[in-house]
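Table S2 (text version). Query chain:
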Amino acid sequence: MTTISASEAQKRLYTLLDDVAESHGPIQIAGKRHSAVLISEEDWRAIQETLHLSSISGMKESIIDGLKTPVQECDEELQW
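Corresponding structure-token output:
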């Protein structure tokens, strides 16, 4: 992970936003008192969705079972 100072991040903010959105690689911003990590909004939302789905009982097992199912055996229409 790339690490830059808070001062440098302040100077390059718009470029850094473009970089994390395009590369999907996080950037650590190190300040004098604290550090933080800059990630794209898309990546943040994906992390939040993963955490939410992981919190649902049985979801992990259901996803694993679904991944083992051959595509030919999948329904073309959802039965919702």
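Notes on Table S2: The chain has two domains: 1-39, 40-70. The mean pLDDT is 93.
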